[in-house]
Amino acid sequence: MKARVYVTLKNGVLDPQGKAIHHALEGLGFGGVADVRAGKMIELDLADSITDADLDAMCRALLANTVIENYRIERGA
Amino acid sequence: MKARVYVTLKNGVLDPQGKAIHHALEGLGFGGVADVRAGKMIELDLADSITDADLDAMCRALLANTVIENYRIERGA
User: Fold this and answer.
1) Among A34, B14, B29, B36, which is disulfide-ready with B22 (CB 3.0 to 4.6 Å)?
2) For chain B, which residues make up each domain, given as ranges?
3) Chain B partners of A45 at a C-beta cutoff of 8 Å?
4) Nearest by CB to B45, which of A34, A47, A58?
């Protein structure tokens, strides 16, 4: 079974990576970009025995830093 | 208008970050993980004048390295 975890910085947390991307886009002549936020996507190939609670525990223990990051889990087929 | 760009490594490209995450999950006692691939998610807040072609150009010019990475664009409201 495949699962995807999307990790994003919480609102209000400074995002230097996103700022750098924004600045670089402007430098390349791409206007009309108001804001850029950078996040992570982690694709996991899991055994079918892994429950939603297991996946949530993985996110809390390792994949996301819940002090400054939100995470969203998307389970696939 | 919001748009999200998902950047993933192409199949066959080594993913040391994914390997490190996999190893760390096993070290923490999470079994049942067959494979982990790490990718990026970039959230853009765009002016309505930005077309799909503009967004594609941004991906090719900066957001993804198309030699080793695939990208997928998801436009929101």
Assistant:
1) B36
2) 2-75
3) 33-36
4) A34
